[in-house]
Amino acid sequence: MTEQPPAVVSASKLGLTFQTNDGPVQALSNVDLSIGKGEFVSFIGPSGCGKTTLLRVIADLEKPTSGTISVNGMTPEQARERRAYGYVFQAAALFPWRTIERNVALPLEVMGLSQAEQAERIKRTMELVNLSGFEKKYPWQLSGGMQQRASIARALAFDADLLLMDEPFGALDEIVRDHLNEQLLDLWARTNKTICFVTHSIPEAVYLSTRIVVMSPRPGRVTDIIESTLPRERPLDIRETPEFLAIAARVRDGLRAGHSYDD
Fold first, then answer.
1. Which of 122, 151, 232, 258 has CB atoms 3.0–4.6 Å from 92's, for a disulfide?
2. How do strand 162-166 and strand 194-199 relate by DSSP bridges?
């Protein structure tokens, strides 16, 4: 029997309580989760359910107060120090005084890579997100969707196997969002990255994911983990198929069930 590789992300009885002036706030409670290499896992739930907090714990931007979590077999802190992941925020967060290629280069400069290595990685990642030819442009010269693609390129420049994405398309209009969803699936297929993706959108979660993690209102708990039966090749019109709609209905039911925990 072949030994299974360690999970890219593994959490057991994970909890996080913030101390505030109004008293403790429990953001996450008893989260058990295992994410394998090459998976596309979406976290979905109502506002304030801890989706982003969980992503930030994986990235070592927040420290859990109970339970355990590992990233590529390391602590999140070790994974961060070894640059084991790229992180894409809700807003593109590009520096307006830097060209797109210099924004993408920023983490590479921090890593101390040579100019030649930086140039090679910038070229590769700009091609991956279909932004070749826009290297010398400034963020304000690009549309919102193109800015987010530049942000994804910057996260990919690390060349890490794990990509953490916190509602990257939430502020974009539906047509642009659909287009970027298609491009993200294509990118995932070409790179075989492991992707953890936070969203409020049921159609987006179902369209993109191999698994969907449904979370309850605070304290954030995992109420359901839904395996997708959709093929990896997913044209946009797959969203009108009975199979897609059945998965979406289960996600919706899981979100409703989670609300029953609310006091």
1. 151
2. parallel
